[in-house]
């Protein structure tokens, strides 16, 4: 009987010692080591890839897209459609899956796409004005008409063939922070006009914030909208 109690005490003591050691190693030493290495070698990424404005204030993350909308006329009306603030470069459409009170810049509960097929709403394989309301084709056509209307200026008319695909479709996550150089270039004249800037200066701004393919061959050239609009704000105030 005494041997049994003694063995149990020894086993319990060994288990508690193992628990203590593993708690210190896995719960304290390892997290501190990983955090220290991340802060030393990858400070920007470890802190969320923050973007700061010219005053040093954090305005967002380069990894998550933001919307640029005018304030709602009736904030309590959930059915009121948000209208884009046309003084800013606009991101890709965001097909929200709901709303939340934490990240109000994007109406999303979680990231995701529409999961509709490319020919959803197509007539004889082609998206036309006859597409049924609520289908992907109808959304794309409406988005294309809005892009043309919003970005056409007195001296420059946007043609339907000038509208790139990323201007009228959301990304797989719905949170894409980047747009194509073509979509950014399409918005240049409207942004310049709305901010009282020369077109050449805004074109240079876009060129300076265009990132090429990763390692020269992966992905596509892209423009981070938040970084671009942050630089635009500083330029407009200069």
Query: Which strand order do you get reading across the main beta sheet?
Result: 3-5-4
Q: Look at the structure and give the mean pLDDT.
A: 86
Tally of strands: 5
Proportion in helices: 40-55%
User: Could you tell me the strand content as a percent range?
Assistant: 5-15%
The main β sheet shows up as: 3 strands, antiparallel
Radius of gyration: 26 Å
Alpha plus pi helix count? 6
Going by helix content, strand content and strand pairing, the class is mainly alpha
Distance between the termini: 87 Å
Spans with pLDDT under 50 lasting ≥5 residues?
Answer: 96-102
How do the SSEs run, as a string of H and E? HHEEHEHHEEH
What is the general shape? elongated
Query: What is the count of structural domains?
Result: 2
Tell me what you see in this structure.
- The chain is mainly alpha-helical and 238 residues long.
- The protein has helices at 2-41, 43-46, 136-151, 181-195, 199-208, 225-237; strands spanning 50-52, 58-61, 178-179, 210-211, 222-224.
- A 3-stranded antiparallel beta sheet has the order 3-5-4.
- A hairpin with a 5-residue loop joins β1 (50-52) and β2.
- The chain is elongated, with a radius of gyration of 26 Å.
Brief account:
The protein is 41% helix and 6% strand. The chain has 238 residues and is mainly alpha-helical. α4 (181-195) packs antiparallel against α5.
What are the main properties of this structure?
6 helices, 3-stranded antiparallel beta sheet, 2 domains, two-stranded antiparallel ribbon, mainly alpha, 238 residues
């Amino acid at each position: 009987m005494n041997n049994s109690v003694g063995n149990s005490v020894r086993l319990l003591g060994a288990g508690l010692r193992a628990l203590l050691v593993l708690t210190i190693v896995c719960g304290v030493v390892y997290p501190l080591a990983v955090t220290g290495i991340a802060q030393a070698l990858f400070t920007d990424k470890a802190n969320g890839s923050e973007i700061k404005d010219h005053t040093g204030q954090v305005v967002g993350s380069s990894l998550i897209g933001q919307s640029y909308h005018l304030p709602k006329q009736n904030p309590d009306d959930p059915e009121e459609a948000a209208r884009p603030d046309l003084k800013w470069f606009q991101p890709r459409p965001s097909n929200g899956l709901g709303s939340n009170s934490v990240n109000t810049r994007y109406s999303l509960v979680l990231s995701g796409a529409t999961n509709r097929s490319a020919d959803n709403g197509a007539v004889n394989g082609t998206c036309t004005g006859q597409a049924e309301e609520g289908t992907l084709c109808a959304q794309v056509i409406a988005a294309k008409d809005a892009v043309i209307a919003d970005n056409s200026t007195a001296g420059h008319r946007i043609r339907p063939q000038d509208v790139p695909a990323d201007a009228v479709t959301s990304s797989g996550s719905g949170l894409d922070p980047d747009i194509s150089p073509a979509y950014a270039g399409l918005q240049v004249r409207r942004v310049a006009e709305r901010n009282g800037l020369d077109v050449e200066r805004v074109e240079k701004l876009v060129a300076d914030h265009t990132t090429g393919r990763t390692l020269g061959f992966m992905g596509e050239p892209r423009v981070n909208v938040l970084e671009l609009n942050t630089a635009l704000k500083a330029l407009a105030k200069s």
